[in-house]
Amino acid sequence: QVQLQQWGAGLLKPSETLSLTCGVYGGSFNDEYWSWIRQPPGKGLEWIGEVRHAGSSNYSPSLKSRVIISVDTSKNQFSLRLTSVTAADTAVYYCARGLVRGVPEDWGQGTLVIVSS
Amino acid sequence: ERVMTQSPATLSLSPGERATLSCRASQSVSSDLGWYQQKPGQAPRLLIYGASTRATGIPARFSGSGSGTEFTLTISSLQSEDFAVYYCQQYNNWPPTFGQGTKVEI
User: What's the 3-state SS for A12-75?
Assistant: First the structure.
């Protein structure tokens, strides 16, 4: 069973860059899809983007200008960077793994990121 | 972007009862539809993908049906651990989008 464990800063000021990393344990980077999804407090789920082991990535159009998702196969990790954050980016951020594009099967524990001045 | 609409917003039922949750897509998503369960403070859990295929380890009381724009998740006999929020999600069109959720409560 693949396990995902994520970490990163939980409190940011407006205009700063959000940076989160997800470690993959019990598996390896092969043909899976590695994704980031977020959930504002008390609200629904929003897809941020995904990357494959070879580094090809796809982002949600609404966030594309501010997002980079990268993968480090040597460390079995993938990361999320979201620039120029505002209060609207306050959310629990989840990393996830799937064998089918757009179907996250295994999820990280979630990281609450608060953007506040 | 495909808009996913779930109904009802809240479903009040008792253990042992049958739960029927609906999800409608703004345009056809074929059978590229998943269902997720989320409990408070936890990450979502994949239940169903491909509209009707149960994910690994998901009990048989969970079943999915539908194609195109209309989908249903059925829980045949509610157990205490099934009271949660359920989300549908389409992955036919980029970006994948989720419904707003249905809360199944006692």
Answer: ECCCCCEEEEEEEECCCCCCCEEEEEEECCCCCCEEEEEEECCCCEEECCCCHHHEEEEEECCC
Under an 8 A CB cutoff, do B32 and A110 touch?
A: no
Instruction: Give B94 to chain A, closest Cα distance, Å.
Output: 8
Q: Are A63 and A78 in contact (CB under 8 A)?
A: no
User: Beta partners for A47?
Assistant: A37
**Chain A residue numbers touching B100 (CB-CB < 8 A):** 44
Average pLDDT for chain A: 93
| Contact map slice: B 3-32 vs A, CB within 8 A | 32
pLDDT tens sequence across B28-75: 999 999 999 999 999 999 999 999 999 999 999 999 999 999 999 999
What SS3 state is found at A88?
helix
